[in-house]
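Q: For a teaching session next week I want to show students how multiple molecules come together into a single three-dimensional assembly. I've collected the sequence lines for a complex. Could you give me the predicted structure tokens for the whole thing so I can convert them for display?
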Amino acid sequence: MNDKEWPLYEVFIRSKSGLSHRHAGSIHAADDEMALDAARDTYTRRSEGVSIWVVRSSQIVASDPAESSAFFEPAEDKIYRHPTFYKIPEGVENL
Amino acid sequence: MNKDQALLAYVARLGDNALVLGQRMVELVAGYPELEEELANANFALDFIGQARMFYSYAAELEGEGRSEDDFAFLRDENEFRNVLLIEQPNGHFGDSITKLVLFENFYLLQLGALRHCADTRVAEIAARAEKEITYHLRHNTNWLLRLGDGTDESHERVQQSLDSLWQYTGELFAPDDIDNVFEAEFEGPDLAAIAERWQEQITTIVERATLTLPAEQWMVSGGKQGRHSEHFGYMIAEMQYLQRSHPGATW
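A: Of course. Below is the structure for the complete assembly, covering every listed component.
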């Protein structure tokens, strides 16, 4: 990494109480406090959020796209993992 | 000075402080080395200009002579602006701007906190809204002063110089004039002596945390609150007012 550039942070915004944080984008900052400020100034200017998480991009452990067939494809033919074989009793509206 | 005159002058001065500082910050727009700080500065500048609009609109209503917020901002002369000298100082380098903001906003936040409980409902409402904005500015700007003061030898030295050169303008913040006194008496306005004491405590804490040295007690410059400004001010408002002066009533 070019040491003249501030580290990259990923920004996660919770748009309202009860929803989960979602990835909004990324910003550069020299430290954690600055990252939180920059995230607030960049991604919540139009009332997009009620809570912000920032995390150093370098701290995120990501799956390798090259391994995606081994990682994800085995799940594709295991339809029994989806709860689609149950009969819904009559009168139950919200299942 | 009667009650009505004091209210009008007090509200217009709040507008002057907000507008002049906002305009100084606008001068920095598109000049930051980092996009994130660029955005923060522009947001902050707009907060101040928004506050100026609210104060000027109210001042125009109080005056009742058909003037608008724009007339207050763009068609008054230098000596009609009653803002404090501290905020009209040129931007200088980044450390100068940050120091200026920390010194002023610590005062302004205490002032707004007191105004929130004053007897004029409209001023109290505007103050309540502005207080939230300034609370955030101060968090951001204080963090920067700590980073610069407690940063490299160069940043420490430069921001110490900023503090030393701006200190002479801080006395005026707490020097009451007729407008302050009548507003305090008639509208339960801010007690500047009490604010001065708290400001001193807060600034001392920040300066110590930033490993900087508080400037020695010294002679303080004043005059801005009476409309006597530093020489930089004329250039600043000339640029700010150019468009409305050259093309009166221009809109786009």
